[in-house]
Amino acid sequence: MKYYTKTAEETLALAKKFAKELKGGEIIGLIGNLGAGKTLFTKGIAIKLGIKKSITSPTFVLMKIYPVNSHEQIKFLVHIDAYRIKSANDLIAIGANEHFDQPDTVTIIEWADKIKKILPKKTKFIKITIDRENRIINV
């Protein structure tokens, strides 16, 4: 499914709509260039899950774990950024893959195309691109 958004607010709204369908156990792989809106999309999901903390890209720490208190089944949002890693083994070394099959966790990975080989087959990939007027979000 392809969606078009013109503003950050529209992108957040789309991510919130997407988050309504989450039940826990999902792995979401975000793909897109710098500035495409991967972190913005993650923010929208976090807001819908009731996370109050400011969501920033974990580029330097690689992974952030946010508790979710307002959802019946989802207890954690794991936000991973694979931009700086040299190989998928870097994420395995910090235990990122331990979160992949947890039924009470939603895992979002920015730059997921860099680590496809370690991602489970059930990973939902979302590609975000920008043209002159729109952000194009392909789910």
Radius of gyration: 14 Å
Task: Give the spatial strand order of the biggest sheet.
Answer: 1-7-6-2-5-4-3
The CATH H-level homologous superfamily: P-loop containing nucleotide triphosphate hydrolases
- The ordered H/E elements are EHEHEEHEEE
Largest sheet: 7 strands, mixed
What value does the average pLDDT take? 95
Strand-residue proportion? 25-35%
CATH class call: Alpha Beta
Number of helices: 3
Shape designation:
globular
Q: What name does the CATH topology carry?
A: Rossmann fold
Q: Point out poorly predicted stretches.
A: none
> Structural class, from helix and strand content?
alpha/beta
SSE blueprint:
Elements (H helix, E strand, L loop, with lengths): L1 E4 L2 H12 L7 E5 L6 H11 L14 E5 L8 E6 L6 H6 L11 E6 L13 E7 L4 E4 L1
Parallel strand pairs: 2-5, 2-6, 4-5
Antiparallel strand pairs: 1-7, 3-4, 6-7
Can you walk through the features of this model?
The protein has a seven-stranded mixed sheet, with helices on one face. The chain has one domain (2-138): 3-Layer(aba) Sandwich (Rossmann fold), CATH 3.40.50. The protein has three helices and seven strands. It has helices at residues 8-19, 38-48, 88-93; strands spanning 2-5, 27-31, 63-67, 76-81, 105-110, 124-130, 135-138. With 139 residues, the chain is an alpha/beta fold. The N and C termini lie close together (5 Å).
